[in-house]
Write a sequence for this structure.
């Protein structure tokens, strides 16, 4: 039976996703091309051997429109014979790209494929692909949800209220994320995964040395009179400090079979073991990581205790804390090098970024199994189990 292995994984440093951010001047095509070029340079693979490039990008408008993955691989110097496609499963887009790539390899449709992702939130602001006055939901959708859905920030507040997560718990979790990311940066834990740019060598948003007192001064970011009336159970504790920042970045992963890797002289880093995707209540929106985790473990024939390290996307602190309470996972094994609260969350790139970081952390810690999951707008989540190879 064919397998799917990760032969290499790289990412750019993550920049602040605003006009003053370090990566704002880089066109998103060039941002993704940088990771693709780094992947080829590090492996020495002939890009003509790549059967397909599958990329994730959420805000596919303006500079990120018209199949940015194909444009980026051509910008990276790949032969014109190499195809590419761009997919959107919201924040999990490039994790889904990994799933599609691995499934293609296992099925025999591909021998060598790249899964990747990009988002320049400073150039293509979140939501800018939804035109003014456009009703994107339709009559039948609104009939099913007559009360309407809410922005993700309010979903994060609803999660905190449902699981009894306090403002101080969320702030403490965020501070730990920054501390872990800073230790990883200073200690060189990201050295192998980073493909530095002239504009930025390390992740820009990490803020070491914060305190609970300083976090407490931040105002809730999503409250309003109308929202407070609709959701009286919310204590309103989601702030800029315990939410992931807007970000720019890209990442890329080379996926092939063990047999093809050996033939090409590549050393596999990990085997892509099992995959799952799940849906959940779109009002709570960010909770599908809970059933997705259960689903992927069942498919893998593993238990939570078998997993050595977890990467759970820190879109909001409340999301990871609710997941940990529901699953019973040990937070000491979660995002050991920090998460999106500190590193940033360049939407379409985050799935590949988390996988790149997880592979590196597993290698450094001698872990066997790792599990990655991320919440996605619309009430979805992807989950992936990988196994480090000796």
């Amino acid at each position: 039976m064919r397998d799917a292995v990760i032969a290499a994984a790289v990412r750019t440093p993550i920049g602040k996703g605003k006009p003053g951010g370090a990566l704002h001047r880089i066109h998103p095509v060039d941002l993704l091309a940088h990771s693709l070029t780094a992947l080829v340079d590090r492996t020495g693979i002939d890009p003509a051997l790549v059967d397909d490039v599958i990329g994730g990008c959420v805000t596919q408008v303006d500079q990120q429109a018209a199949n940015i993955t194909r444009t980026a691989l051509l910008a990276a110097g790949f032969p014109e014979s190499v195809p590419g496609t761009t997919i959107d499963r919201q924040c999990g887009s490039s994790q889904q790209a990994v799933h599609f790539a691995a499934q293609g390899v296992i099925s025999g449709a591909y021998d060598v494929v790249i899964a990747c992702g990009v988002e320049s939130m400073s150039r293509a602001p979140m939501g800018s692909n939804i035109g003014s006055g456009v009703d994107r939901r339709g009559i039948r959708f609104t009939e099913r949800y007559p009360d309407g859905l809410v922005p993700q920030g309010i979903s994060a507040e609803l999660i905190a209220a449902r699981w009894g997560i306090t403002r101080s718990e969320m702030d403490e979790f965020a501070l730990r994320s920054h501390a872990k990311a800073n230790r990883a940066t200073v200690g060189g834990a990201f050295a192998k995964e980073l493909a530095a740019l002239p504009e930025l060598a390390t992740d820009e948003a990490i803020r070491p040395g914060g305190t609970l007192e300083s976090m407490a001064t931040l105002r809730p970011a999503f409250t309003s009179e109308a929202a407070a009336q609709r959701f009286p159970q919310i204590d309103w504790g989601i702030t800029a400090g315990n939410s992931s920042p807007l970000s720019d970045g890209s990442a890329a992963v080379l996926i092939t079979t063990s047999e093809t890797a050996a033939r090409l002289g590549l050393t596999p880093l990990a085997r892509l073991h099992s995959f799952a995707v799940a849906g959940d209540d779109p009002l709570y929106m960010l909770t599908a990581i809970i059933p997705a985790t259960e689903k992927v473990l069942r498919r893998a024939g593993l238990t939570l205790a078998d997993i050595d390290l977890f990467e759970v996307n820190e879109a909001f602190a409340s999301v990871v804390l609710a997941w940990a309470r529901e699953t019973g996972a040990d937070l000491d094994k979660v995002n050991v090098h920090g998460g999106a609260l500190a590193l940033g969350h360049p939407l379409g790139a985050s799935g590949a970024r988390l996988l790149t970081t997880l592979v590196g952390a597993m290698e450094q810690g001698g872990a066997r199994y790792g599990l990655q999951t991320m919440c996605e707008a619309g009430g979805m989540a992807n989950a992936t189990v990988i196994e480090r190879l000796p």
Q: What stands out?
A: The beta strands are 5-11, 15-16, 52-56, 84-87, 112-120, 247-256, 270-279, 309-312, 369-376, 380-388. The mean pLDDT is 97. The first strand starts at residue 5 and ends at 11. The first helix runs from residue 28 to 43.
